[in-house]
Specification:
The protein has 423 residues and is an alpha/beta fold. 64% of the residues lie in helices and 8% in strands. The chain has a four-stranded mixed sheet with strand order 2-1-3-4, sandwiched between helices. Strands 5-6 form a two-stranded antiparallel ribbon. Helix 3 links the parallel strand 1 and strand 2.
């Protein structure tokens, strides 16, 4: 056991001291904060000057109520939109003239109301040179809709002074029901689930490939010949897998702490970055984080054993990519099945898929984040993954023991079976 501990320590210390580990560990939280800041800025961004627009009214009589409906103000008190020109039943030359003014910068845009807008057949069009500048497109839609609805009611003999107040919609909040109570849902459950499952998918693939390349590097540089003289091959394999797992857990711990700080102080950061900005409340129960680590370890130990066997079988990077492709496809398949879980986490198909050992680590954590399944399903998934990992590790150790000292031609399937029978 002392030699096993030395191998684990060597693998861990060697990797956490690398620039790639430091950069990768720091870059992910910084990238997350950057995306967070950009999102807040984009959501709270407002126009900083009045937009000059024109209205071409092919119905007749709608331009005035539309202009009256554009009531939004900038922070400096100036109107967001200024209707500088209105044309009732315009000619084709009017549209051409306004288009030229938009192209030359004389206008920020012009709104064209089709003749059949009141009948509900035609769609209004807003022509602008820079769509990104129009941050109040909802205001235009609302003003046009209110004016058209008022005209329809007027045609039926109904007079309504404040059409906006009459047709104002009622907000419907989505409330998520859990065993611990209820909370308002603004899409944060979906975001958390996808982020966690994608993180698990990416790290399983990344650390599995890292294990494979580590084995292959020691084999191709003949270092392994020195190591096996003093340490049993099984201890080398186990130490390498557990050492890399410790590196992964270290990164997960740092990322979790960074995520916790972002969640705890996100609202304060948002307010400081952009007064009045807000962010949805992300609540991640501690149990979910525990399951994330457990399923990562279950998936990592399984795939790392497979990748280590691949590294022992091959002699160069090209062969490693060819032999390792089926393993990578399994991980990618789990990613492609996300939609099944997201659509209905408690469906029979979702339950079955989340119990299949090779894809269960990713799909079960997705189910847990979306809608906590019964504990027996989580336990069964972990148990099946553990049993599969033990069997795969046993076979991989046999391949590793022989393969690390084999050079030259890649072994055939028959030779691999022969290696597994060696005692």
């Amino acid at each position: 056991m002392h030699k096993l501990w030395l191998v684990i320590k060597r693998e861990y210390v060697t990797r956490v001291r690398t620039k790639a580990f430091v950069i990768g560990t720091i870059a992910i939280p910084l990238f997350t904060v950057g995306i967070f800041a950009i999102t807040i800025f984009a959501q709270s961004r407002e126009a900083d000057h009045t937009l000059k627009i024109a209205i071409l009214d092919n119905v007749g009589g709608l331009s005035t109520p539309i202009a009256a409906g554009l009531t939004e103000k900038l922070k400096n008190g100036q109107p967001v939109f200024e209707v500088v020109k209105s044309v009732n039943r315009p000619a084709s030359s009017d549209a051409a003239g306004l288009l030229n003014q938009v192209q030359t910068g004389g206008l920020d845009g012009y709104l064209m109301i089709p003749a059949d807008a009141v009948d509900g057949k035609g769609a209004a069009e807003f022509h602008t040179k820079n769509p990104g500048e129009i941050t109040f497109s909802d205001s235009i839609n609302r003003a046009v809709s209110d004016a058209v609805i008022a005209r329809r009611l007027e045609n039926k003999g109904v007079q309504v002074g404040d059409i906006g107040g009459v047709v104002r919609s009622v907000e419907v909040k989505l409330m998520k029901v859990t065993a611990h109570g209820e909370s308002e849902e603004k899409g944060q459950t979906f975001v958390i689930a996808v982020v966690m499952a994608t993180l698990l998918y990416a790290t399983l693939l990344m650390y599995g490939m890292t294990t494979m390349r580590s084995v292959m590097e020691e084999k191709t540089t003949r270092i392994i010949e020195v190591l096996v003289a003093s340490v049993r091959p099984f201890y080398l394999l186990a130490g390498k897998i557990l050492g890399v797992a410790a590196v992964a857990v270290t990164q997960y711990t740092i990322w979790t702490a960074a995520g916790g700080l972002l969640g705890a102080y996100g609202a304060t950061m948002a307010s400081a970055f952009r007064p009045g900005a807000s962010m949805p409340a992300f609540h991640l129960p501690p149990a979910v984080l525990v399951y994330l680590v457990l399923f990562f370890l279950a998936g990592y130990l399984l795939f790392a054993s497979l990748y280590a066997a691949v590294g022992a079988m091959v002699s160069n990077e090209q062969e490693a990519q060819q032999v390792g492709t089926p393993i990578t496809i399994i991980i990618v398949a789990a990613f492609l099945l996300f939609n099944v879980i997201l659509r209905d986490p408690s469906s029979r198909l979702a339950v079955i898929l989340s119990l299949i050992p090779f894809i269960s680590p990713i799909l079960m954590i997705l189910r847990i984040a979306m809608q906590m399944p019964p504990f027996w399903q989580i336990a069964l998934s972990l148990g099946l993954s553990l049993l599969t990992t033990i069997g795969v590790t046993y076979l991989s150790a046999k391949i590793y023991r022989v393969g690390v000292l084999m050079y030259g031609k890649r072994p055939s399937l028959v030779e691999l079976l022969r290696w597994m029978k060696y005692t």
